[in-house]
Design a protein that fits this description.
The protein has helices at residues 25-38, 50-57, 100-105, 144-149, 153-159, 168-173, 182-187, 221-235, and strands at residues 2-5, 12-15, 40-43, 83-84, 122-131, 139-143, 163-166, 191-194, 196-198, 205-207, 213-216, 241-244, 251-255, 259-263, 274-281. It has 291 residues and is α+β, with helices and mostly antiparallel strands. The protein has one domain: Clavaminate synthase-like (Double-stranded beta-helix). The strands form four sheets. The protein has a seven-stranded mixed β-sheet with strand order 1-2-3-13-5-15-4, with helices on one face. A three-stranded antiparallel β-sheet has the order 12-6-14. The protein has a three-stranded antiparallel β-sheet with strand order 8-7-11. β2, α1 and β3 form a beta-alpha-beta unit. It is globular and about 45 Å long. The model has no long low-confidence stretch (mean pLDDT 97).
């Protein structure tokens, strides 16, 4: 495999590997080590199917269940090990503009870390491009390691021991979406996460940010949200951000513990964007891991 950097501070393009076949243990270890170094890997021209994508992600841990949505079982297009990051309903038709599922999914355009709203959040995500629009629909990624390193020492001291509460209700509320059923409110009850995390392999610290944050323990909520907004503005400065312009067959894999991302706008009521994500669970809740 060859790894070619795509950004000055993180990310690499990977060639010389076919993800449709089973990886050897040595190949999986090489990719895992590269994730610790680069935090984001781009695998071009991987015309993969769902089962091959799931097999690839299982090299790095247990696949999480795709529960971060408001679809019923009857409305699902894909199985529970594959997150449907598309604008399609169960019949393969583009969502209507006023479809409740479409409005909920618009939250993907906010800066976030996958599954930070779960007690045990996500480790790696792998997103494959099965159909892409004629324009728009890029994905932006921000390096939370470089963002932490660039904080003033006073800000590092302020945030290092903070605990935040994450929920999909918080992130969707930022867009004015608040029509949750009682079952959804229970399903999306807030969970506690560290605001600063450390990579156990490299020792580097990161700011664990997400639009899903709605509270900081021990701080009045308006003050907490003003601080989170300041940190997000700092962490998403252009020097920390890589924009991926999708081509058909791309797979992008990222470390949710070390990056944040968001989708960009496209004509989602007129063109198809079929993206499918497998997500590997982290080993434990962030608060159970070493600070």
């Amino acid at each position: 495999m060859q790894f070619t950097p795509v950004h000055p501070v993180f990310g690499a393009r990977v060639t010389g590997v076919d993800l449709r076949r089973a990886l050897t243990p040595a190949e999986a270890a090489e990719i895992d080590a590269a994730m610790n170094e680069y935090a984001l890997l781009v695998f071009p021209n991987q015309m993969i199917d769902d089962e091959q994508q799931k097999a690839f992600s299982r090299n790095f841990g247990t696949l999480e269940q795709a529960t971060g949505n408001i679809q019923t079982a009857a409305e699902r297009r894909l199985d529970m090990e594959m997150a449907d990051i598309s604008n399609l309903d169960q019949a393969g038709q583009v969502f209507a503009r006023d479809d409740r599922r479409r409005m909920f999914n618009l939250g993907n355009m906010l800066w976030h870390s996958d599954s930070s709203f779960k007690a045990t959040p996500a480790k790696y995500s792998a997103l494959s491009a099965r159909a892409i629009p004629s324009s728009g629909g890029d994905t932006e990624f921000a390096d939370m390691r470089a963002a932490y390193d660039a904080l003033p020492d006073s800000d590092k001291a302020l945030v290092d021991d903070m605990v935040t509460h994450h929920s999909l209700i918080y992130s969707r509320g930022l867009l004015g979406f608040g029509e949750f059923t009682d079952d959804e409110k229970l399903k999306f009850a807030p969970v506690r996460q560290r605001l600063v995390r450390r990579n156990a392999m490299t020792g580097r610290r990161t700011i664990y940010l997400s639009s899903h944050i709605g509270e900081i323990e021990g701080m009045p909520r308006p003050e907490a949200m003003a601080l989170i907004r300041d940190l997000v503005e700092h962490a998403t400065q252009r020097q920390f951000v890589y924009t991926h312009k999708w081509t058909l067959g791309d797979i992008v894999m990222w470390d949710n513990r070390q990056t944040m991302h968001r989708a960009r706008r496209y004509n989602d009521t007129g063109e198809v964007r079929d993206m499918r994500r497998t997500t590997v669970e982290d080993v434990a809740p962030s608060l159970a891991q070493a600070a």
